[in-house]
Design brief:
The chain is mostly beta strands. Helices cover 0% and strands 59% of the residues. It is built from no helices and eleven strands. The strands form two sheets. Strands 2, 4, 5, 6, 9, 10 and 11 form a seven-stranded mixed β-sheet that branches. The chain is elongated.
Length: 120
């Protein structure tokens, strides 16, 4: 009933910028907290950033000062602006959302991921 889809990934040179989008579609009563995770080859999935429904952000130390998470609740969209990209940022990026399907049912949803490749 609910699907998340990331877009905006691609290949950039070190120092470049990229913006990721995440669109939520389906039967949605309200979207609560959201976030971005990433997984590099051979690595565990790690938290990149989170944002509350009210817009309060939290970032992993590795991306502080470089990435900005934001959301548009009127469009059910989540964004990740990535600046000053480094090769170690290379990973598949996933969006996740806690979504109220109705007044009593809240579930976590994940997108399929989008590849970000940063070359040196």
């Amino acid at each position: 009933q609910v699907m998340l889809m990331e877009s905006g990934g691609g290949s950039v040179q070190a120092g470049g910028s990229l913006r990721l989008d995440c669109a939520a579609n389906g039967i949605i009563f309200r979207i609560e907290d959201q976030g971005w995770y990433r997984q590099a080859p051979g690595e565990q999935r790690e938290l990149v950033a989170t944002i509350t429904r009210g817009g309060s952000p939290n970032y992993a130390d590795s991306v502080k000062g470089r990435f900005t998470i934001s959301r548009d609740n009127t469009k059910n969209k989540l964004y990740l602006q990535m600046n000053h990209l480094r090769p170690e940022d290379t990973a598949v990026y996933y969006c996740t959302s806690k979504i109220l399907i109705n007044s009593w049912n809240m579930k976590d949803y994940w997108g399929q991921g989008t590849q970000v490749t940063v070359s040196s």
